[in-house]
UniProtKB/TrEMBL annotation:
Transmembrane segments: 51-71, 83-112, 133-157, 177-194, 201-220, 226-249, 285-304, 310-331, 352-372, 384-405, 417-440, 446-464
Keywords: Cell membrane, Membrane, Transmembrane, Transmembrane helix, Transport
Protein name (Swiss-Prot/TrEMBL): MATE family efflux transporter
Compartment annotation: Cell membrane
Membrane topology note: Multi-pass membrane protein
Annotated segments matching region Disordered: 1-44
Protein family (similarity comment): Belongs to the multi antimicrobial extrusion (MATE) (TC 2.A.66.1) family.
Entry keyword annotation includes Signal: no
Species whose genome carries this gene: Cellulomonas wangleii
Pfam families linked: MatE
Amino acid sequence: MNRPSDTPGPASPDPTNSAGPHGGRPTDPAPRTPADAPARPTDRTGVDRRILALAVPALGALVAEPLFVLVDSAMVGHLGTDALAGLALASTVLVTVVGLCVFLAYATTAAVARRLGAGDPRGALQTGVDGMWLGAGLGLVLAAATWAAAPWLVAVLGADGDVATQAVSYLRWSTPGLPGMLLVLAATGALRGLQDTRTPLVVAASGAAANAALNAVLIYGAGLGIAGSGLGTALAQLGMAGWLVVVVVRGARAAGASLAPAAGGVWASARAGLPLLVRTATLRLAILLTVWTATGLGPSALAGHQVVNAVWGLAAFALDALAIAAQALVGHALGARDVARTRAVLRRTLQWGVGAGAVLGLVLGGLAPFYVPLFSPDADVRRAAVTGLLVAAVALPMAGWVFVLDGVLIGAGDGPFLAWAGVATLVAYVPAALAVHAWAPPGAAGLAWLWVAFAVVFMAARAVTTGLRARGDTWMVVGA
């Protein structure tokens, strides 16, 4: 299944002996971090080093997550077109549930980074602990609700017959992993705020490998079919969560932070995340509308959409590595009241984002005819997937711009603006998606028009709103 999160390991610094990932003692006024490097704040080489020091490990962690989707899609795809179409619907529901809680990572990253930049490592780790308690509680509630509502949720997306049966099976077997998924979000947010992106890299890579092995055993060895894929994903996520929690708890103990849930801290985490919840809800509504539209284009187009969406997710998570670096560095710079460094990070991450999007577009679009057959033996599904991928590839440079700007504004704590901007971009996208649903032909041509609506129209609306905001200074509020 696809996850909107990023996620921890042995090659990473151990917070047990430091307040942050770079060895500052808990009593130090400000632990040394990449953002404290001696290069001048506006020196391009120095800024690039700090960006890459965070983005490269984050890239590995973020790419490992979409590999869950690719592995699931490849293995389930060989169970048949109905199974792959069912996976498309079920994973969309599951990602929506988890995606609505992505504020656990984003708000925690910004809050922890600001406190670290202001010289308060104990407060930074306390914020991370409070976020994990909130994630665990939400995960238990959402797991029970999603399991009970699975048939209704699948029906709302327009599925029936064998496709609906497959979707409900995957969804219900996946839900035990929801508490783990939300704990992964919160703990990863804390580590990112501490500017440790290497721990999430190792844990995410380990989780992806475990997921692949579990799927192979449960789908084929145990004969569970699509249910085995859901169970394998749940077990892998729970294992990743346990690993991450141990790392953050050890760091919190070393810094003198309390491990007990503080009502005020948990409430502060929830309040800070509310605007980001609204922002994420608009994104998920757009994605749900896209899947609903793909369902109306027929099983082949829906199965093809799952392939395109999986590859788009891989590219998006790769580009999001730069947004993760921007979140941590912007939050730290604003906490330290360094506006010049904030502007330098904004400028360079945008340049990196557009360039990386162009490279990914060329690679993923150009090689589409060669890797799409790995996902399905059905010629109609392959044709639809390749056509959709060519459209998506063209839009990737603009997507790189959008994702980086999102990261910058989240790192600045500009959640209220992002909430309103999300509503505006959804309003711009709805007519385009409805037009595809009403007039687009079934099959490959219809899927191409659907991705024009999503990857071009929707992304352009996001680029305009966030770009205009970043040109001003209102979002740059300094201090912890």
